[in-house]
Every structure is written in C-alpha cells, then in structure tokens.
Amino acid sequence: MEAIFSYGFMQRALIAGLAVAVTCAILGVFLILRKDAMIGHGLAHVTFGGVALGLFLQVTPILAAMAVSVLAALGILKLKEKAGLYEDTALGIFASVGMATGIILVSLAGSFNVNLLSFLFGNILAIELFEVWLSLGLTVAVLLTVSLFYHELFYLTFDPESAATAGIKVKRLEAVLAVLSAVTVVLGMKVVGILLVAALVVIPSAAGLMLAGNFRQAMLISAVVAILSVFLGLLSAFYWDLPASGSIVMLSFLFFLMLFAVRVLKRRVNRVKSGILS
Amino acid sequence: MTTDSVQVRVEKVDFSYEATHVLIEVDLTITRGDFLAIIGPNGSGKSTLLKIILGLLPVQQGNVILFGQEPAHFSQWSKIGYVPQTIAHSGVLFPASVEEVVAMGLLSKKKFPKILRHRDKESVEKALERVNMNDFRRRRIGELSGGQQQRIFIARAIVNEPEILFLDEPTAGVDAETQQRFYEMLDMLNKDHDITIVMVTHDVGIVTKHVNKVACLNQRLVFHGTHDEFCSSSVVQDILKGEHHLVCHRH
Question: What is the CATH number of the domain that holds A171?
Fold first, then answer.
C-alpha cells in the first residue's frame, strides 16, 4: 500500500479527500438535524453555474464557484427571510437559476465541455496543490468554528427560537453555517463531483446519527465513516480502476447500511431485554 | 407598585402581519411575583405578544421595556427563561441527552467562548430535581413523552435561576393528569422560588385555579386584573363564550 501513496497525485488526493470528508461529515450533522440536508444538493447546482462562469471568464473555476456559491448561500437566507419562503423553496429557486446559468454559458462558449465534465463527475486524482491547501484551510476553519461555537451551534440546531432568547446571535450563526456549507460543497465537488457532492454531506452524517448517543459522538462517527469511505474509495480507484467519486459514495452508503442494521439489532435486543418482544 | 417590581412594561403596542391586525394598542405590566395567564380566543395575538416581549418579533409600534431595556438591545438574557410552544428538532434521531438539553439553558450566562464547566453539572442536576426528572438525565430527549419533554424544557428554562419564566401553550397535547401536575410545579416555582410566570394558554378552566393574574386579549387587551376580578368580569365571559367552560374556584 505504501507504493500507492508514493505518487504525488495520490498524496494530494488523500490529503484533500480526507480534509473535505471530515468537513462534510461535521457540517452534515448540523445540516441534517436542522432539516437542511438538501442544501448540499442545491448549492451543488449553483456551483455548476459558478464553474461555468469561471471557465467562461477564464478565471480559476474553483474560485469563481466559491464566490458564486457563498453569495447564493447568503442569498437563500435573505430570500427566505424577506419573502417569507420556506428554505427548500428559496433553495430550489437558487439551484435552478445556478443550473440555468451554467447551461446558457456552456451553450454560449461551446468549448469547455471536457473541463466541465471533470467538475460534474469529480476528479480527485487530478487535484492540484493549491486545492489541497484550500481543503486543509477549510477543515481548520470548520473545526475551529465548531469548537469555538459548539454550544451555540448545538442550541441553534436543536431549538433556534429559544436559542435567540438565550442571547445567541441566531442570524449571524446561520450565515456562518451557510458560508461554510457553500465552501465545503465547492471543495467536495473536486472530490466526488457536482452530481455527488450532496452525498458526501448527507450519507456519512446520517450514518453517524444511527448510533450516536450524543452530539459529539454523532460528529465523530460521521467523520470516521467519511474518512474510511474516501480512503477505501481511493484504494478501489487505484487497484480496480473504478471511478473514485462513485466508489466513495457507494462505500459511504454501505457504511450507512451497516450502522443502520446495527441500530435495528440494538433496538431489537433492548426490546427483548425489556420484555416487549419475546 | 414600585418601579423595581416592574419586570415588563408593554405600552400601546400594535402589530400586524401584512394587512391583518393582530395586536392593537396593547398595554400590559408584569410585576415581580405575578403568575399571569394570557388568554384569549384563537388568533387573538397571545403568542405574538409573547414573542414581541422576548424580541423574537419586532416592535412595529409602541414600546416594550424588559428589565429596563428594549428587546432589540436586551442583554440580560439570564434573567429570562422561555419554554416555546414547539421545539423545532426534538425528534427521536436528535443525539442529545436530557442533561445536554438542560445545559443549553446555561449559555445565556456565559461569555465567549461559551464553555460548560464541571460545576455547571450541579446546576443541571438541581434544575432536573426541581422538575422531578433527575432519573432521566442520561436518556435521549427524543425517547421521552410529550409531558416529560415539557418538564425538561422547563428545567432548561430555569437552570439559570431566571427572574421570569415565559411559557407558550405549555400543556398543548398533554393529558389532564399531567397538566394538573404541571401546574402544581409552576405554582411551586412561583411561590417557593419567587419566579414570575407568564403563560400563554387556551386552558382557561384549569389555569384560573392556579394563576393570580389574568390578561385577556382579543387583539386589544380586554381585561387585565386579579383572578377574582377575572371571575366576575362579564366582558371576559362574553369573549370566551362558547369556547371554554369557565370554572372559577381555588384549591
């Protein structure tokens, strides 16, 4: 196995992949419990528009996508607040507009289809050094934010109304979560692609929630699931020539199924113990 | 009534959603030691008034003064406890133990970075004891019944030892026996721990046995007075006619 990671591209893939995996898993726990799981999906659509804009304007696509995605995430919050819309409706509007922008720009340019495909399906093995640094920076930012604001984020996730009456700046924290989610989705796009990035946010975190007894455990289990999925996904890409993005997502789904089965078994054992089932 | 004893003052407050008036020129004063029930028919603006007092909705017109400050600039959050009508995400999957939920209530006292210390555990235990739920402290919140969850949310609201506790329809969906125990617990908090209680409720019949003040809203404040005055008020009886069977007696 040492030989695989002697290649520079594999080292970059592993470092960036693990960093993004941990970030997605931790943020995913908050998003799922706030019933915002689809934000990953919606922002991925917006990201498509951002990438297309970057390619069209000949600006680094990942940076253009990041700017567009962050603006969209904040726009979704504003639209929800000002127009009184439900979050999924505001998200639906931005996702559609992002996608439509991408399609129009692709049609206008007509020359960057191959590049765009790598963003759609992900290309972790072609990750560049500055993207590795971006991923590491994001991971540090997310871990620091979650550590410093852990209790506030926990309260906000559980009961935003009461959190406001405890003096927590709810709108400000929601904006922080939205911005971190937007940046995470853009970096996740390099790992598994626009089409699958939502899976990286949702599946490991959902797996973590199957067994966690408390909030910290949920983040820890989710991070472990995400790390294993990326690591094993990279191995399968190397050894069996499978697409890394699809393998990572399928492995995380497999872990989810395993933890779900353990949860069902655990509940059954508890019921038998308490005499509800014979 | 001394100025010190006034905790909340609402003056000429109007509020509307789009073109619908919800509150019109509402005046209300809440003083230390009150156990106040805010009652009224559906859509009378009870919950809206509570949310305006707490700063969850803006003051569109009029004034609200909470412990000497406007809600928009309020900073003495540890003086306040709040139990909302519904908790957004307290489902079975939410990975929070009862202890963790109650500890959330301590955050209003803390400065940045808000870290819970070991001694905070004692406050959590004390709050759980007050609501008689200490045996459940390691259980997941989602595993508890509606009535048990309400007790936990009260523990969360009082863990800071607030001076005033606001409750929005706290007994909705709870059976009659649990309701009775719940009101007895509020009585105890009000009398033994000197916590002012402000409760929005539909439950006029039972509430009048426990509270010492009643405010009746029907967009305007149509009544604000003591329990005895309430029971003899014909205005209130007219407004609540048909919606509630009013029994005015004490234990």
Answer: 1.10.3470.10
Dihedral (CA of B115, B119, B123, B126) sign = positive
Chain A: residue nearest B74 by CA? A167
Domains by residue range for chain B, with CATH: 3-89+164-240 (3.40.50.300)
Rg (CA), chain A: 19
pLDDT at B205 over 80: no
The total number of structural domains in chain A stands at 1
For B15, the enclosing helix (H) or strand (E) is: strand B6-17
Name the burial class of residue B80, with classes exposed (0-12), middle (13-18) and buried (19+) by CB atoms within 10 angstroms of its CB. buried
| Domain assignment present for A278 | no
Q: Is residue A254 part of a domain?
A: yes
Preceding omega of B162 cis (within 30 degrees of 0): no
Q: Which amino acid is at B104?
A: M
Work out the minimum CA distance from B189 to partner chain A, whole angstroms.
Answer: 20
β-bridge partners, B9: B29, B65
- Partners of B214 in the beta sheet? B37, B225
Shortest CA gap B59–chain A (Å): 16
Is residue A3 included in any domain, yes or no? no
Do the chains contact at B107 and A151, CB–CB below 8 Å? yes
DSSP string for residues in A147-175: HHTHHHHHHHHH-HHHHHTTT--HHHHHH
Q: For chain A of 278 residues, list the mean pLDDT of each consecutive stretch of 10.
A: 81 92 94 90 92 90 93 93 87 94 87 74 86 91 92 91 91 94 90 87 95 90 96 92 92 97 91 73
Q: What is the Cα–Cα distance from A256 to A209, expressed in whole angstroms?
A: 10
Q: Find the closest chain A residue to B139 by CA distance.
A: A213
Contact map slice: B 99-118 vs A, CB within 8 A? 100-101, 103-105, 107-108, 110, 112-116
Contact A162 B84 (CB under 8 A): yes
Please check whether residue A1 lies inside any domain of the structure. no
Q: Which domain holds residue A72?
A: 8-273
Q: Is A13 helix (H, G, I), strand (E, B) or coil?
A: helix
φ and ψ of B240, to 5 deg:
-85, -5
Whether A132 and B74 have beta carbons less than 8 Å apart is answered as: no
pTM score over 0.90: no
Name the residue type at position B87. I
